């Protein structure tokens, strides 16, 4: 963890941004060195991911990233900090609020969710998924098919703005629209006494768009493997589009925003 009160935040998506499964190396060690140098200057290193907390910790170990983040935002929403003996715990009341909001969301929108489920099951080859803990999602058979499903969902959102979802490729997870990578990043900043002007955020996929927003981070970036729509979004908001993939692209991005860090 950072040795002193953070003065700025470095928020990275995990898959496709910090690591790239088809690259060699998957995670460039120079990026780790740069992050550590910036932490010495007051940065809080945050992983902001759609993975669950256990999946995130497993991924760090799998790819040999042995630095412990200062905070993890998991499932595109839940904020965690390291606890005693490295046990991760909720940071602030946000996670509890998010869970209650999701329960209300599911209860309040049974009709819309039923209509969406029927559409998926009768008009597509995709699957509507309902988990044991109230989580709801869709797996499309192709991105084009999920595009069509999202258009149908968006029609419901126009009537009920609190209906939200996180999308990554052919995978979609429903969520209350007030709880996303972006709003979680802003809540973390608030808890640390910071604001969007002191936040850097980077991501490559659709579920990263909420944090690649000046309302949540004034410094935004995407790697060379970012989706075209993500690159266009970052460019339109004055952000940085790297040439290289994932961690090597993040080296470019940190150099662009922070120069060469010196402890």
From TrEMBL:
Specify whether Hydrolase is a keyword of the entry: yes
Q: Which UniProt keywords apply?
A: Hydrolase
**What GO CC annotations are associated with the protein?**
cytosol
Gene3D superfamilies from the UniProt entry: HAD superfamily/HAD-like
Keyword Transferase attached: no
MF terms (GO), sorted A to Z: magnesium ion binding; phosphatase activity
InterPro entries in the record, alphabetically? HAD-like_sf (IPR036412), HAD_sf (IPR023214)
Q: What is this protein called?
A: Hydroxymethylpyrimidine pyrophosphatase-like HAD family hydrolase
Instruction: State the species of origin.
Output: Prosthecobacter dejongeii
């Amino acid at each position: 963890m950072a040795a002193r009160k953070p003065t700025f935040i470095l928020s990275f998506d995990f898959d496709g941004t910090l690591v790239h499964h088809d690259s060699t190396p998957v995670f460039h060690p120079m990026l780790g060195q740069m992050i550590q140098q910036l932490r010495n200057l007051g940065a809080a290193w945050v992983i902001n991911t759609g993975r669950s907390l256990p999946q995130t910790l497993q991924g760090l170990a799998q790819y040999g990233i042995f630095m412990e983040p200062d905070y993890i935002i998991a499932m595109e929403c839940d904020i965690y900090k390291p606890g005693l003996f490295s046990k991760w715990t909720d940071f602030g009341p946000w996670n509890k609020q998010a869970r209650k909001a999701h329960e209300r969301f599911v209860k309040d929108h049974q009709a819309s969710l039923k209509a969406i489920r029927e559409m998926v099951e009768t008009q597509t080859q995709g699957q509507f998924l309902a988990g044991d803990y109230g989580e709801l999602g869709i797996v499309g058979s192709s991105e084009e098919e999920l595009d069509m499903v999202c258009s149908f969902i968006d029609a419901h959102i126009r009537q009920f703005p609190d209906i939200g979802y996180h999308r990554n490729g052919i995978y979609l997870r429903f969520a209350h629209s007030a709880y996303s990578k972006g709003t979680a990043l802003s809540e973390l900043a608030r808890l640390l006494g910071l604001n969007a002007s002191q936040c850097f955020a980077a991501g490559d996929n659709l579920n990263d768009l909420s944090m690649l927003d000046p309302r949540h981070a004034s410094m935004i970036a995407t790697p060379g493997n970012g989706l075209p729509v993500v690159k266009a979004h970052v460019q339109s908001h004055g952000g940085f589009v790297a040439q290289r993939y994932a961690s090597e692209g993040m080296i470019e991005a940190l150099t662009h925003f922070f120069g060469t860090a010196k402890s």
